[in-house]
Each structure stands twice: as structure tokens, then as C-alpha cells.
């Protein structure tokens, strides 16, 4: 009897969109899915407990690839048996479908003759899908996420690559900043000489201006010419000039 998908169920495996649960048992869960064309497909996925058991995974792989332990194995449309996080197989819908490949996973649960008591594998209690930890945790119908198809190693490689990319960007940014010439600082303007006080300008003026400035308050006393004496000054004749000096008067003031 089918039932809606649960919150821990994947919404897509490979190219197949899961729509509902068809069967659930300790070995795994069988889903009804549809391919890209809308055709119904049966998809079987190992449970979390079976996927964690290497022996159970080996039996599932042998059943899918070689048909071991499967009576009339259905045609395999697609499968993923190399990733423990999500081991699944897809087969045409109808008949046993993909659930037939889950039968060999739990072998030994009952005796061959049916007289010996059967036992359940130690992982029988972990019936959640192996990809439940990566499945959509919101309400039903609010979205779909594909099951994780890469191992933890791929995640680590991706994180390391992202870290290297960030480091490369930082180095490139540092080299670009090192090549940019530093911006020249604007020169500080020289302070203009302040105007000297009026008194200082007067001191630096020319002597004519300074003398004129000082004479504005008081009159300049000019020396008066000395009058020559009015008395008779005797003339003394020089040698050789007796004849020339005869015509000269004794008083120089009488010279016209």
C-alpha cells in the first residue's frame, strides 16, 4: 500500500522524481518515481542501516550488477551502488519492480529449510533512507532536494578549492594595491607675509620721506650765511703780478 513521502525521504534520485512510497522494510524503501518523460518508474533505495553494512552493500551490488539472489531480475534502468550515502536502483514499474533487488540484502534471516529460527540483522532498526540526513526538512510539498550523490571527500575538495580561490583573490588584490602609486599629498600653502605696522613702514621709507615725516611736527633750522666783515681788507700783491694788479683797487667791495 502506497503512502506519501515523509520528511526524511529524498525527492529525487538521479533523473527520477520520487512521488510516493510503495513499500518499506528493513533492507530499504521502494518508491514510485517518474522519469523526465513522465513514465512511472520503481526505485529501490537501501536503508540507513543496510547502507552502513559493507556486507549488505556488497550483496546489493551483486544483485544489481549480476542478478545474484534475484529470481527473474527486472531490467535495470539506472543504479548507483558506489556511494554508500545513497545506494539505489531503478527498474520499470510493475511486478516486483526494483524491490526485487532488496531481497538478497537481508539473507540469513531464516533457515534454508524453514526449521531453524530466523534472526534480524543488527541494522534492522535503522529503516530510514540512507540519504535522510541530506533530505528536505521542511513540510511536504514545499520543495524537493536531490539526494546527495557525492561523498564527503568531494565536499572536502570543494571547500579546499574555495579556500584556495579566496587566497588567490587576496594575493591578486595585494599585488594590485602594491602597483598603485601613492597619492601625492597636497603642498601646504606658504603663509603670506603680514603687513608691517605703520611705524615700521615709516622706518623703512627713504630718507627724504623720513625727513619729511619728522619735519611735519617741527621746523627745520637752516644755518644763516655769515656776513663778511665790512672793514677794509688789504690786498697783497703777488710776484709777477704787480703790473696786472695795479688796476685793482685796494678795497674788494669797490669792484664792480
Automatic annotation (TrEMBL):
Chain segments annotated as transmembrane: 155-177
Biased composition (Low complexity): 195-210
Region ranges (Disordered): 184-256
Record keywords: Membrane, Transmembrane, Transmembrane helix
Keyword Transmembrane tagged: yes
Superkingdom of this protein's organism: Bacteria
Protein name as annotated: Serine/threonine protein kinase
Lineage of producing organism: Bacteria, Bacillati, Actinomycetota, Actinomycetes, Streptosporangiales
Amino acid at each position: 500500500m502506497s503512502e506519501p513521502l515523509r520528511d526524511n525521504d529524498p525527492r529525487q534520485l538521479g533523473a527520477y522524481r520520487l512521488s510516493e512510497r510503495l513499500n518499506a522494510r528493513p533492507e530499504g524503501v521502494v518508491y514510485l518515481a517518474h522519469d523526465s518523460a513522465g513514465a512511472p518508474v520503481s526505485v529501490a533505495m537501501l536503508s540507513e542501516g543496510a547502507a552502513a553494512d559493507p556486507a549488505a552493500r556488497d550483496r546489493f551490488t551483486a544483485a544489481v550488477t549480476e542478478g545474484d539472489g534475484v529470481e527473474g531480475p527486472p531490467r535495470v534502468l539506472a543504479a548507483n551502488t558506489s556511494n554508500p550515502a545513497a545506494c539505489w536502483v531503478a527498474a520499470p514499474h510493475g511486478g516486483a519492480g526494483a524491490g526485487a533487488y532488496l531481497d538478497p540484502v537481508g539473507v540469513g534471516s531464516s533457515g534454508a529449510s524453514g526449521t531453524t529460527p530466523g534472526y534480524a540483522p543488527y541494522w534492522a532498526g535503522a529503516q530510514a533512507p540512507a540519504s535522510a540526513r541530506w533530505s528536505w526538512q521542511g513540510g511536504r510539498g514545499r520543495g524537493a532536494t536531490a539526494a546527495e550523490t557525492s561523498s564527503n571527500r568531494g565536499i572536502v575538495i570543494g571547500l579546499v578549492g574555495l579556500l584556495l580561490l579566496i587566497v588567490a583573490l587576496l594575493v591578486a588584490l595585494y599585488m594590485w594595491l602594491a602597483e598603485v602609486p601613492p597619492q601625492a599629498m597636497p603642498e601646504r600653502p606658504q603663509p603670506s607675509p603680514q603687513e608691517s605696522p605703520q611705524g615700521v613702514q615709516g622706518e623703512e621709507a627713504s630718507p627724504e620721506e623720513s625727513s619729511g615725516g619728522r619735519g611735519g611736527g617741527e621746523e627745520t633750522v637752516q644755518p644763516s650765511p655769515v656776513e663778511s666783515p665790512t672793514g677794509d681788507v688789504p690786498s697783497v700783491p703777488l710776484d709777477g703780478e704787480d703790473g696786472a694788479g695795479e688796476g685793482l683797487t685796494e678795497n674788494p667791495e669797490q669792484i664792480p
